Amino acid sequence: MTTTAEEFETKPISPQKLQGAKTFAASYAGEHVAGTEFVIGALFVSWGVGAVDVLLGLLLGNLLAVLTWGLITAPIATDTRLTLYAYLEKIAGPGTIKLYSVVNGILFCVLAGAMITVSASAVRILFGIPDQVGYFPTDLRFVLVVLGVGAVVVYMAVKGFEKLAAFAEVCAPWMILMFLVGAFVMMPTTVGATAGVDSINSFADFLTVASESIWKDSDGAIGIWHVVAFAWVANLAMHGSLGDMTLLRFAKSAKYGYFSALGMFIGHYMAWICAGIMGAGAAIILKTSITAIDPGSVAYQALGASGILAVIIAGWTTSNPTIYRAGLAFSSLNHTWGRTKVTIVVGVITTIIACSPFVFSGLLGFVGYMGLLLAPVGAIIVAEHWLFPRIGLTRYWSSYKGNTTNMAAFITWIVSMVVGVALDKLGVMHLFFILVPLWTFATAMYIVMASMMGAKDTYPEAKEAEEAERLRKEAEVAYLNSPESKMQSANQQLPALAKAAKYISWAALASCAYMGLMSYINQDIETIRAWLIVPTLVYFVTATYAYLAQPSSEEKAVAANLNSAT
Q1: Max Cα separation, the chain?
Q2: Structure confidence by residue, pLDDT tens digits, 190-214
Q3: Entry pTM
Q4: Sequential DSSP letters for 64-126
Q5: Residue 236 · residue 374 · CB < 8 Å
């Protein structure tokens, strides 16, 4: 994909910019194996939720998230080829999109700030800065570390989607492995703290250790359905609120939405469980509560210098696309501003927010409210895109009427947010349980109000718009079936040296896995903490070289054009 400064944010992207499966597999795997997994993994330990509730609840909740991406977000994104902001403006008008962009942009800034803070929690170990687990920093050096980490993150976000995907593609395999290795390293510590279990020889033994030394059931109010709801809600802004239209518009097929399973079951399910094991083990070693240590300390206790690097990179791979999304949100306020300039400003603000550790210490409540504020917008878009044609209402009716604001959408969104906040504050139901009934309420309310305000009418502009959209889709299908597209999709041969580097990078990953397994067998933490950094550095040097040696999107396009002309 050729990345321009603006990346076609206000109109459907051209077929030549569409990306293949590998890009989205790497992007989802990388973005959802994040530094915040250390925070969330530790959360279930501190919540007092039983092991069985955690294991089953995360399985079901993450499945619901994948289905939401695959059945709702990706089909709408690939059908329209628009960002969320461009499509919402088409449905709800410039007036609504301005308010939505401000709200969405602020939320993404805070979320990205949490990722930067997590990365900084690892860097601070190198400077002897104490754990930062309060609401505000207690050491000026931590603020300076955050500013440095933020500068790198903003630079990557400014480079756009292709650079973010490239960064994730190199980092993802190693990051995933680090969570597994960290769990292997810390398992003997948790076994040693469990009465009646000397080693894990069966799943029953693991369940005993998990129940008595990791996820201890406190018989509190939090149970399996809270875990299910949280696993689904955690990324509601991206799937149920359609934020990932911004990325999935580049997908050649709507089926690529199911690549979110890599993020949900590797990044969330596996990583949250492994992070819980690491957090419990680190707390045992440090003889403290898991709530008193930050992600950097957890990873360092398990993996040494490689743990520091893991937390830094895990935070980067999530904060980068989150800042990118925030930049898109604010740039939609005025298309002449341009995404690049806006992203720089947003990145500076986000980095300032990240200086206060409260952005990750209060992450869970924030994620719930983020879903509550944005879910009604997802309901409005889904209703207009899918339901309206099926019940005899006209899509984009408000724009055909010449409205600058779709009052039916605006009022539905505001009322839904007020209802959601009221339900939470009055204690009617837990925050995580509000979102499904809130989505249903917003859908019904919007259909009724739109019907009353003009959606039942017919408009001559509608037929013209439908014809233009049909021609665009036909051109896209024709291109994807053309020799040029197939040449761009074809695997390119790597130079011999790059191919060797690729094989060496695989061997380095295998070495990391072997060291983790031997650490578990020999109950030896010190060796892996000291030496895991060696195959780690070998991996990044060789994997980066092999990646850079691949033909760029521009080179592939030129080759395709030359081949199609001969």
Answers
A1: 76
A2: 999 998 888 898 999 999 999 999 9
A3: 0.83
A4: HHHHHIIIIIHHHHHHH---HHHHHHHHHHHHHHHHHHHHHHHHHHHHHHHHHHHHHHHHHHH
A5: yes
Structure-block tokens of residue 548: 């850079």
Phi and psi, residue 290, nearest 5°: -65, -25
Half-sphere exposure of 210 (CA within 13 A, CB side): 20
User: Taking Cα atoms as reference points, which of 501, 536, 537, 542 lies closest to residue 515?
Assistant: 536
Specify the residue for token string 């952005």: 359
Length of the chain: 566
Q: Computed from CA positions of residues 303, 308, 314, 315, in that sequence, does the dihedral angle turn out positive or negative?
A: positive
Count H helices, E strands: the chain? Answer: 27, 0
CA-derived radius of gyration, the chain: 24
Cα–Cα distances (Å) from 73 to 40, 118, 173, 368, 444, in that order, read 24, 28, 25, 19, 20
Rounded CA-CA distance 55/215 in Å is 10
Tokens of 439: 């989505």
CA distances from 86 to 10, 394, 402, 443, 541 (A): 5, 18, 17, 20, 39
Residues 6+ apart with CB under 8 A from 422: none
In sequence order, what are the beta bridge partners of 251?
A: 19
| Sign of the torsion angle spanned by Cα atoms 424, 428, 432, 437 | negative
Query: Environment class of residue 33 by beta-carbon count within 10 Å: exposed (0-12), middle (13-18) or buried (19+)?
Result: buried
Question: In the 8-state DSSP scheme, what is residue 266?
Answer: I
**Could you say which DSSP state residue 216 is in?**
-
Residue-wise pLDDT tens digits, 458-497: 998 888 888 888 888 888 888 888 776 666 555 556 788 9
Report, as an integer, the average pLDDT of 215-234.
Answer: 87
| Average pLDDT score, the chain | 85
556 vs 1: CA distance, rounded Å: 9
Structure tokens at 327: 């930049």
Tell me which residue has tokens 């689904």.
Answer: 232
